[in-house]
Design goal:
By secondary structure, the chain is mainly beta. The chain is 9% helix and 32% strand.
């Protein structure tokens, strides 16, 4: 078949209501906590039987904020400066023919919630809040882990995390259980690689907070919450 209709089986609940600020890959910010809530049709405890025996899961999902009617064979990854074009299938760009994403997350547990059934508690996700999920599969270390794998863009990803300066008076506005995740997300430098203006203010929404910051060299300073 040239076309196939897929059902949304679940949606993630994360602290990122918008694309900007989300970690570029899953696993980069392990302190981020998210919740996977199944659609009513799939709220069957039997479907999760045995899942807690796995430490990590694969999520197959949709770049729901990047769906387009057309596609381009090449894209310009921001981490490469935003000018160099490479093949779309040689990147993890959201602008793809089918706008599908693949993420590996850590399973922290299964929790029953009234009105929602059993939900999955996960960490390290790189999904926007309410992102539709099409499938969930267990991560298998013996088959999925390849220590000898190579990365064509390794040099552009080798920069160390930014030092985050978060004034205590502003940090106190963030709930204790969300601070580590926010700081880790900021340290990954959410800005495109071609932006280097130390006087420019950037910002993204995290949970119910509007986080504003500036970047000067290797230091990111939070200036407003």
């Amino acid at each position: 078949m040239e076309q196939h209709t897929m059902k949304v089986i679940a949606r993630i609940r994360s602290d990122f209501p918008e694309k900007f600020g989300i970690p570029r890959q899953s696993g980069l910010v392990p302190e981020l906590r998210s919740k996977i809530v199944f659609e009513p049709e799939f709220r069957n405890a039997d479907a999760l039987r045995g899942i807690e025996g796995f430490s990590h899961l694969w999520l197959i999902w949709q770049f729901s904020a990047a769906v387009r009617d057309t596609w381009s064979p090449t894209v310009r990854p921001p981490r490469l400066g935003g000018n160099e074009r490479v093949g779309v299938f040689a990147t993890r760009s959201p602008f793809r023919p089918n706008a599908l994403g693949l993420s590996c997350v850590k399973l922290e547990g299964v929790q029953h919630e009234d009105g929602l059934g059993d939900v999955l508690l996960v960490s390290g996700a790189d999904l926007m809040d309410l992102t539709p999920i099409y499938d969930i599969k267990p991560y298998l270390p013996y088959a999925d882990c390849h220590p000898d794998a190579t990365d064509a863009f390794e040099e552009s990803r080798s920069a160390k995390p930014l030092e985050v300066v978060f004034p205590d008076v502003l940090l106190q506005k963030i709930p204790t259980d969300k601070r580590a995740g926010l700081i880790q997300a900021l340290s990954q430098n959410p800005c495109p690689g071609y932006q280097h203006d130390p006087n420019r203010r950037y910002g993204f929404n995290f949970s119910s907070f509007d986080v504003r910051f500036q970047i000067d060299g290797d230091t990111l300073t939070v200036v407003e919450i």
